[in-house]
Each structure stands twice: as structure tokens, then as C-alpha cells.
Amino acid sequence: MPEMLEVELYRQLADRATGRTITSVAVPDSRVLRGDVSVAGIRRALVGRPLTAARRRGKLLLLDTGDGGPTVGMRFGMTGGLVLDDHQAIDALVYGPAGFGRQWVRFGLHLAGRDGNDGGDLLLHDPRRFGRVVLDPDEDALGPDAATVTVAQLRHVLASRPSPSGRPAAGPPLKARLLDQSRLAGLGNLLVDEILWRADLSPRRPSGSLSGDDVNVLARRIRSTVAQLLRRGGSHTGDLMPERRAGGHCPKDGAPLTKSTVGGRTTWWCPQHQV
DNA sequence: ATTGTGGCCTGCCCGC
DNA sequence: TGCGGGCAGGCCACAA
Predict the structure, then answer these.
(1) Which of A51, A69, A87, A232 has a 20 to 30 A CA-CA distance from A239?
(2) A4: which nucleotide lies closest, measuring CA to C1'?
């Protein structure tokens, strides 16, 4: 998906619809509901209710409704985008088709403004159909948000249960742990590669092998990288990104980058300084 | 129980 | 130009 930075931009856009009332719900492709609720059910739950807040946890966008209505949870998959009043939060996702296509709208809330006049539409635009809409998602199934992760929280994220033999397990690769949304919410493939590159840590390092200082530095790197790339405008604005390709070199020391699969995802890193 | 794998989907880009 | 293969910022069900 869009990672947490893109979803934060979606949240800021959706926040402009706070105070408007849902007058109808469009579900051109019911697969977006994943069987969690019927089209009729989601209409009953939402029509007539006001949007009261736009929140985010990790990559999950949360739209609260008033008058006892549910919270609408939106996940954006790999190519999902949010459109409000014909305004796109992200002009073109790096791995999605550029621009807007009416045929790629999978879900829509038609809105009325406070004065009762036409209040526009909030649309989920998702060519690849990996996005999902759910009612009242279990927010606590997600770990703490990466934007504000503390050292203590990160220590818990990286900790491994002792093995049956009693000795502490080395744990899965560091990158796999950072991508596990149930332990830490928000980081995706590009952000993790950028963060580990900045933190001088190999994505293959066993997650339980970090020293106290390592964890301290990594927590700071996560927060600062998230903040900086959000200011720059998204997950694809990292310093490693331009070199994340065949023949790419480390912007720090010029070493040829390594490409491999770690945590099930394509991973680029510098074998020279990431250890 | 944790961890790894395949599958879900579609569009784009590259090489033949 | 046309076509096939490989690839993609995520997540979920499933197997070991």
C-alpha cells in the first residue's frame, strides 16, 4: 500500500470532510467489503450519519461517524488512493497507474455539507483491488504506530520468546519484525529499507541480536525518517530510493547495493555499512 | 505459536 | 507493434 505516510496524507484529506453527512454509499465492487458486511448492511449503518473524525493507525485509515454509527476502516493495499471532491491525495502512486480512472473506484461515500447542499464524494480509488473497507476494525490488532514508537515499545517489538531449550531465540530477520503490523504499525517495504540503511543495520540481522544502544538508535531513526519523509511527501522520497535498482550504489559509501528477498519482500541494502 | 509461502489482482515495462 | 514474463509501497489464509 501506500505506507503510513501516504495514509497520513489521505487522513489529512479525509479530515476536510469532517462535519459532512453521508447521504449514500456506492459499492461498485462488493469484493472490497470482503464479506465482512453486506452492501445493504453498510448502507444501513452509514447513511444519514455524520463524519466526526479522521484518524489513522499504521496503514489503517479510520473514519468515525456520529449518532452511534460505526467507524469505517479503510485499507489501501498496494495501489489504493483516496479522492475527495475530485481532489486526489496522491497524484500518482509509484506502482499504480498514473491519474484517476472512474473504473477504478471501488467504494464511495456521497456527502452533504452542513448547510444541506451537495457536499461531494469520498472515494476509494484502487486499480489492483487489494484495498478493503471494514466496519469497526479491531484497532488493537495493530501494534503501536511507528511515527511515535518509543524505545521500550521497540524493545518489545524485537524481543523473541525463549526457545524450548530455554536460551533466547535469535528471532526472525530484523526486517520481518519491522514489517509485522501486529507488533509495529505503519512501516512498509520501502520505509523499512530506508530506515535500516540510515541505522546502519542489516535487514538480515536476527531481531533479537540488537544491543541496547542499537535499539535506542533504531527507535530514533524510525521516528526521524517517518517525520522527514512525510515532510518530503511520501515513502518514495527516501535517500536510498534512487539507488534501489539494478546497478545501484550506496549513497553513503558508494558500495554496490545488494538485492535479495528478506521477510518475503524485495530488499535492497548496503553490504558495506549495514551489519 | 510463530514463521514462511502462495495467492489475491491489475497495470506497466522490458525484451524478443 | 504485439506478446509474454516478471515485477510491484500489502495482507490474509494456510501449512509446517
Answers:
(1) A87
(2) C9
